[in-house]
C-alpha cells in the first residue's frame, strides 16, 4: 500500500515519546517524513525521577533510519516546561503543525485512601500538562494557518475504573478541555480530538495487564500492540483529519468513537421530586440518544423539548 498520508515538511511535537505509545507515534511520523520533537522526562511510571536517555534513544533511532528529530527533556507538568517544548520546536524547525499530548503516569489507590499528593501529581502531569503543552502551540497555530492537536484521555476516564479516581478525573478533564479548544480553535483552523488508547506498555504492566516487556512473541502483547493504536493517531494528527472536538478509541486494531449523548427525557409538569421518581424509567432510558455539538446545541435541545424553540 502506498503511503499517501505523509508528514513531509510538517513539525510534530509528541510528549512522552520516550516509551510506549508516544514512541510509536514519533517513529511512524518520522518514517512518513515529519520532523518530530521527541519530548520525554524519562521518569518511572509513577512520575518519580528523570532521565534524558528515554527521549534521546528515540531521536537516535529516528536519525539512524534517516529521519529528522530533536529531543526535549522538559516535564509537561509545568508552564515553563510546556513553553520550552514549544520553543524547542520553533528554534529547531521554525513551525509547529501538530501536537500529540501523550505523556502520562499512574498513581493508583482506592479513593478512600488517596492522598492529596496522589491527586495533585496526576492532575499536574495529565490535565495541567495537557494545558501547558497545548496552549503555546494552539496560539501559534491560530495565527499561522491552523494545525492539529491530539490529546490523550483513557477508557478508564471515560467509563470509570476502580482505584483510579485521580487519573479518571484528569482524563475526563482533558475531554472537557478538548471540547472547548475545538470551538475556540475552529476559526483559526485548529482541529483537536481526544484519543482513548488501549495498548500493552510499561504503564499497563503496572496494572496487571499485558506489558510491552512480554514482547511481540507473546500473543496477548501482540494483540495489544501500540502499532494497532498508532494508525488512528497519525490520521488524527494529519492535516486531512475530518474531525474536531471528538473522542476516539483505539485498541487491538478496533477503532471506534465515544460520544456524550442526551436522551429524550421528560418534561415535568409539577416540578416535584415525586414526579421525577414516577419517570425514572424514561429519564434513565438510553435508547434514543442525540449528541449535542456544544453547549449552545444543548440549550437548543432544552428549548425544543419544552416547546420554546
Ligand atoms: P508509557 O509509560 O509507556 O509512556 C509514557 C511516557 O510519558 C513515558 O516515557 C514517561 O517518561 C513520559 N512522561 C511521564 N511524565 C512525564 C512528564 N511530566 N513530562 C514528560 N514526559 C513524561 O505509557 P503509555 O501507555 O505509552 O501511555 C501514554 C499515554 O496513554 C498516557 O497519557 C496514558 O495515560 C495513556 N493511556 C494509555 C493506555 C494504555 O493502555 N497503554 C490506556 C489509557 C490511556
TrEMBL record:
On the tree of life, the source organism's domain of life is Bacteria
Q: A Pfam family for this UniProt protein?
A: adh_short
Q: What SUPFAM superfamilies does the record point to?
A: NAD(P)-binding Rossmann-fold domains
* Record has Ribonucleoprotein as a keyword: no
Q: Which UniProt keywords apply?
A: Oxidoreductase
Question: EC number(s)?
Answer: 1.1.1.-
Q: Does the keyword Transferase apply?
A: no
One GO molecular-function annotation for this sequence?
Answer: oxidoreductase activity
**Similarity comment:** Belongs to the short-chain dehydrogenases/reductases (SDR) family.
- The name on file for this protein is Short-chain type dehydrogenase/reductase
Lineage summary: Bacteria, Pseudomonadati, Pseudomonadota, Alphaproteobacteria, Caulobacterales
Amino acid at each position: 500500500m502506498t503511503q499517501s498520508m505523509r508528514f513531509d515538511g510538517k513539525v510534530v511535537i509528541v510528549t512522552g515519546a520516550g516509551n510506549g505509545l508516544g514512541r510509536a507515534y514519533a517513529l511512524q511520523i518520522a518514517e512518513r517524513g515529519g520532523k518530530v520533537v521527541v519530548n520525554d522526562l524519562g521518569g518511572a511510571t509513577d512520575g518519580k525521577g528523570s532521565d534524558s536517555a528515554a527521549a534521546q534513544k528515540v531521536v537516535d533511532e529516528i536519525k539512524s533510519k534517516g529521519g529528522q528529530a530533536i529531543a526535549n527533556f522538559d516535564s509537561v507538568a509545568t508552564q515553563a516546561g510546556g513553553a520550552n517544548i514549544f520553543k524547542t520546536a520553533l528554534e529547531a524547525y521554525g513551525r509547529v503543525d501538530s501536537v500529540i499530548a501523550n505523556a502520562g503516569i499512574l498513581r493508583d489507590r482506592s479513593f478512600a485512601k488517596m492522598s492529596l499528593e496522589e491527586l495533585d501529581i496526576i492532575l499536574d502531569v495529565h490535565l495541567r500538562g495537557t494545558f501547558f503543552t497545548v496552549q503555546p502551540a494552539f496560539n501559534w497555530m491560530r495565527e499561522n494557518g491552523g494545525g492539529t492537536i491530539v490529546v490523550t484521555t483513557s477508557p478508564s476516564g471515560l467509563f470509570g475504573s476502580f482505584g483510579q479516581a485521580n487519573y479518571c478525573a484528569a482524563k475526563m478533564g482533558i475531554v472537557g478541555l478538548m471540547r472547548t479548544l475545538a470551538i475556540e480553535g475552529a476559526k483559526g483552523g485548529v482541529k483537536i480530538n481526544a484519543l482513548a488508547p488501549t495498548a500493552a506498555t510499561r504503564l499497563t504492566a503496572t496494572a496487571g495487564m499485558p506489558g510491552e516487556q512480554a514482547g511481540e512473541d507473546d500473543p496477548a502483547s501482540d494483540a495489544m500492540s501500540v502499532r494497532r493504536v498508532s494508525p488512528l493517531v497519525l490520521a488524527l494528527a494529519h492535516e486531512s483529519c475530518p474531525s474536531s472536538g471528538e473522542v476516539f478509541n483505539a485498541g487491538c486494531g478496533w477503532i471506534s468513537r465515544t460520544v456524550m449523548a442526551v436522551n429524550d427525557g421528560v418534561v415535568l409538569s409539577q416540578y416535584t421530586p415525586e414526579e421525577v421518581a414516577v419517570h425514572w424509567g424514561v429519564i434513565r432510558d438510553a435508547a434514543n440518544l442525540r449528541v449535542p455539538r456544544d453547549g449552545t446545541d444543548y440549550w437548543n435541545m432544552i428549548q425544543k423539548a419544552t416547546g420554546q424553540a
